């Protein structure tokens, strides 16, 4: 695990890259939230973020995230990893957002646990906007049907969409067209359902610039902040 001074240097580098992308594409800096991804790193990663006045972090494994929540009540945790419906009971009400809803079954489970606990769980729909066979996510074609169901449920609130671009560092246009697909889908769904779906969680360490170009409102950054080598856990 890196030292906090190194984290602070990385953080200011990432922030200035976000700022220059914003300038380049005419975006306003306050439209974009930086979500540090602390998965695979010890609790210190969360502490560094808290010390830097960052309010939310992303985690992709339920158990790991739940253990980091202990002693971090002031932090918000967002679930960005695949969720099995039988684990819904462990996550509803614990995560400030579940970004990975991608099926009717999972949506129904999250909704019923939320209703049982008398709460409304904020969620994003994960869309496989890059048609990547290796990625989770509802297809672009099936998103409307999923939303039709979502609007009948009282235990969840769909704030927007999330995607993970296909990995192709040699050809950045692959990521960019994935993000553009998601933005267009959001615009169509906003019109269709008369709802803003204002959150677009897209862009990671390797494709932040492309994501900001296409309207991202949340960049999920792991390696650019904490380094590449994940420790053995
Ligand atoms: C790990 C992860 C990230 C961060 O990826 P980096 O390339 O390390 O920035 C972002 N989003 C999801 C869903 C992840 O699992």
- The CATH topology is TIM Barrel
Low-confidence stretches: none
- The tally of strands reads 8
Number of helices: 9
> What molecules are bound to this protein?
pyridoxal-5'-phosphate
Total domain count? 1
- The top level CATH class name: Alpha Beta
* Amount of helix: 40-55%
The assigned structural class equals alpha/beta
Q: What is the name of the CATH superfamily?
A: Alanine racemase
Biggest beta sheet attributes = 6 strands, parallel
How would you write the strand order of the largest sheet?
Answer: 2-3-4-5-6-7
Q: Provide the succession of SSEs.
A: HEHEHEHEHEHEHEHEH
Question: What does this protein look like?
Answer:
This protein has 233 residues and is an alpha/beta fold. It has one domain: TIM Barrel, CATH 3.20.20. The chain is built from nine helices and eight strands. The strands form two sheets. A six-stranded parallel sheet has the order 2-3-4-5-6-7. Strands 1-8 form a two-stranded parallel sheet. Strand 3, helix 4 and strand 4 form a beta-alpha-beta unit. The longest helix is centred in the N-terminal third of the chain and has 22 residues. It is globular and about 50 Å long. The N and C termini lie close together (12 Å). The protein binds pyridoxal-5'-phosphate. The site of pyridoxal-5'-phosphate has 14 residues, from strand 8 and helix 9.
């Amino acid at each position: 695990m890196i030292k906090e001074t190194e984290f602070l240097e990385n953080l200011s580098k990432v922030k200035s890259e976000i700022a220059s992308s914003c300038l380049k594409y005419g975006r306003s800096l306050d439209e974009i939230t930086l979500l540090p991804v602390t998965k695979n790193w010890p609790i210190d990663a969360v502490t560094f973020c808290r010390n830097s006045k960052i309010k939310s972090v992303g985690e992709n494994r339920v158990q790991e995230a739940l253990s980091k929540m202990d002693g971090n009540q002031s932090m918000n945790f967002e679930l960005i990893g695949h969720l099995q419906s039988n684990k819904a009971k462990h996550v509803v009400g614990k995560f400030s957002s579940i970004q990975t809803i991608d099926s009717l079954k999972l949506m129904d489970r999250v909704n019923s646990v939320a209703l049982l606990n008398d709460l409304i769980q904020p969620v994003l729909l994960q869309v496989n906007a890059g048609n990547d066979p290796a990625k989770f996510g509802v297809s672009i074609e099936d998103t409307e049907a999923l939303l039709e169901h979502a609007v009948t449920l009282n235990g969840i609130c769909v704030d927007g969409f999330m995607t993970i671009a296909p990995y192709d560092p040699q050809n950045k246009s692959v990521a960019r067209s994935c993000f553009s697909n998601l933005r267009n889908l959001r615009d169509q769904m906003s019109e269709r359902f008369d709802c803003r779906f204002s959150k677009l969680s897209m862009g990671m360490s390797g494709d932040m610039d492309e994501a900001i170009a296409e309207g991202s409102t949340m960049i999920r950054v792991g390696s650019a902040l904490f380094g590449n080598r994940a420790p053995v856990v």
